[in-house]
Amino acid sequence: MKKNFSSSYVGLISIAISLAAATSACATSKRPSLEVAVESNQQIWNAVVHVGNRTFMSGPRWTGSTGPQLNVIDKNGERGAFPNLEWNNWITGKDASHSFVNINALRLEGNKLWVVDTGSPDFGGNPVKAGAKLVCIDLVENRVVHTYYFPTNVAKPGSYVDDVRFHKGKAFLTDAGHGGIIVLDLESGISRRVLENHPSVTASTERNIVLSHKVVRLPNGSPLRVNSDPLEISQDGYWLYFGALQGPWYKVRTDDLVDTTLSPQRLAASVEPFADIPPTGGSVMDAKGNLYFSDLANDAFRVRHVDGTIETLIVDKRLHWVDAPFLDREGGLWLPTPQMDRTALFNNGKSQLQWPIRIYHLAPSTKP
């Protein structure tokens, strides 16, 4: 299946670069310049949700981020731990059942804020007991209303439960550590793994994650490889789109994913190529099916339209490793820039972060 993408990847990069030059003026005319929405000199945010008069932010513990795992800023600019201090005071050795260990993603569905906790305080480490979980917070009552814990046969040693999307009572999550998709039934709470180690969820050794013309490397010197990471669901719920961080992306029918009678072989055979997206920190899909994503290598933010064409919205050096973007109800884009490649983990133990860490806002040209 990878052969379907081998030649198109180079083509996409060429197109992306040319688009950056050809459309930057156009993009600027369509959208105002970047505005700093939130900033911090101690917290490294990779995920954001803005709804009403509140902004919610989180970031992985392993980056060196300090303070609450989940933050909220109200309309008056007051910051605090959300939903309370108890959920944000986990320390090593403490019961993780009702505390966030390492938040990696936030998702807004109606008036519910969903929080993906990898459960592992260390990058590449093992989830602690009751650490890997999906937490649902009611934003009207401001309290946790449901917590789904992933058993050890789902969130395995070395797993990194990464991101989530929903459809018809099911949650679909990626595992960036052990490549695979987690399917969770929200009514029963039962979860299972599918597409285990399939090529579609496995990071290619032929693609590197490059920022500032440098390959991102682990402490042992090997290039960083991130398995199944970004995912989206088509607006009709028919397809799940997904891929490794490095790309490319694939698609599979959601009906096939939830069909427990389908053999692993038949499910694997139903996976199809979708799009040759370059290494990306994160994505978001609008109501029309347009896929917005960050292009890590080029400090760019682009959109893949439903017809397959790619448009550059903005290229800006401040957009260094845009991670999990958020599209608000007015069509504005919220772009967290955690500078993941500059954290100590990828720089011989010495942080190269350029403070403050910022979340930017890009005003809409039209509503999504």
UniProtKB/TrEMBL annotation:
This is Major royal jelly protein. Transmembrane segments: none annotated. Keywords: Secreted, Signal. Gene3D superfamilies: TolB, C-terminal domain (2.120.10.30). The keyword Signal applies. Its main location: secreted. It is found in: Secreted. PROSITE patterns: PROKAR_LIPOPROTEIN. GO terms for cellular component: extracellular region. Residues 1-27 form the signal peptide. It comes from Pseudomonas antarctica. PANTHER family: PROTEIN YELLOW-LIKE PROTEIN, PROTEIN YELLOW-RELATED. It holds the Pfam family MRJP.
